[in-house]
């Protein structure tokens, strides 16, 4: 049976308050486990950090996605060594390069995909600003040239980058659907056309949440239709700390981001349940 796994970002557990108060690692993991998340997304760079988090998650029967930010093909090798040691659901790659042409990108993408195949690791490239995938149109050209390329869709970056007006035009919806047709995982936050992350608990911003829920519905439906009967789709709640999170004049956040992460988890699980109950959406 197909599954949705909802993860919480370890980066999103950073508070960055003016008073410096932070949760300990143990507190963070207790909160994530207690809230009912299926796992976490964490950076695979420091071995001790990876060992501590994955050890606790394994004990709890949870899973995780590995995140990396290579600039060269060889930068991926030590990450894959850590994956070989600790495992992961999949490897999420943010390409920390900014080529001006698609042709410059191809050796990097092909090299990363080849290394991942050799290691037996699923690798998805994230849509993200200030990365190879910063621009929506450029990324669509990459997809046309790289039929094996699969994405992690963080759709917030393209809404902000292209500053879609509301209501979003059918043309722009179609462009986003082309991206989602190649998404094998999602990173979840809600943006407006001017702001990368808005508080989803604010009623006057509900129309932006509704927009993203509609996009995710489409993405989930397409994934369910093309994936195997036992496949798992991951959705990482990634409500980032300041300055992703909006703060007031005192430097404190305007909403409870941890509470909103749980609300987002519940919302996408509810969406998944709706799709499971719809015969036309079944695999």
Overview in brief:
By secondary structure, the protein is α/β, with parallel strands linked by helices. 43% of the residues lie in helices and 14% in strands.
Key traits:
alpha/beta, 283 residues, TIM Barrel, 8-stranded parallel beta barrel
What does this structure look like?
It is a single chain. This protein is α/β, with parallel strands linked by helices and 283 residues long. It has a single domain, classed as Divalent-metal-dependent TIM barrel enzymes (TIM Barrel), CATH 3.20.20. It is 43% helix and 14% strand. The protein has 9 helices and 8 strands. Strands 1-2-3-4-5-6-7-8 form an 8-stranded parallel beta barrel, surrounded by 5 helices. Helix 2 links the parallel strand 2 and strand 3. Helix 3 packs parallel to helix 4, helix 7 packs across helix 8 and helix 8 crosses helix 9. The protein is globular, with a radius of gyration of 18 Å. The model has no long low-confidence stretch (mean pLDDT 96).
């Amino acid at each position: 049976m197909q599954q949705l796994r909802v993860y919480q970002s370890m980066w999103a557990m950073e508070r960055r308050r003016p008073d410096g108060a932070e949760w300990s690692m143990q507190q963070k993991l207790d909160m994530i486990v207690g809230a009912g998340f299926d796992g976490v997304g964490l950076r695979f760079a420091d071995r001790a950090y990876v060992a501590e988090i994955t050890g606790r998650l394994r004990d709890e029967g949870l899973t995780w996605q590995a995140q990396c930010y290579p600039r060269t093909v060889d930068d991926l090798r030590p990450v894959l060594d850590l994956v070989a040691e600790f495992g992961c659901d999949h490897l999420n790659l943010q390409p920390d390069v900014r080529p001006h042409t698609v042709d410059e990108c191809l050796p990097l993408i092909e090299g990363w995909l080849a290394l991942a195949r050799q290691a037996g690791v699923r690798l998805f490239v994230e849509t993200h600003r200030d990365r190879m995938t910063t621009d929506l149109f450029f990324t669509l050209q990459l997809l046309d040239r790289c039929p094996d390329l699969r994405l992690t869709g963080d759709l917030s970056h393209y809404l902000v980058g292209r500053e879609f007006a509301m209501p979003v035009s059918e043309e722009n919806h179609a462009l986003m659907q082309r991206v989602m047709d190649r998404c094998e995982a999602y990173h979840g936050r809600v943006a407006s056309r001017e702001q990368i992350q808005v508080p989803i608990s604010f009623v006057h911003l509900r129309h932006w949440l509704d927009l993203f829920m509609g996009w995710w519905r489409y993405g989930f439906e397409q994934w369910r239709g093309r994936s195997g009967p036992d496949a798992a789709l991951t959705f990482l709640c990634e409500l980032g700390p300041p300055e992703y999170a909006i703060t007031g004049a005192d430097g404190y956040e305007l909403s409870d981001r941890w509470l909103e992460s749980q609300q987002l988890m519940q919302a996408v699980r509810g969406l998944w349940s709706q799709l499971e109950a719809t015969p036309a959406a079944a695999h």
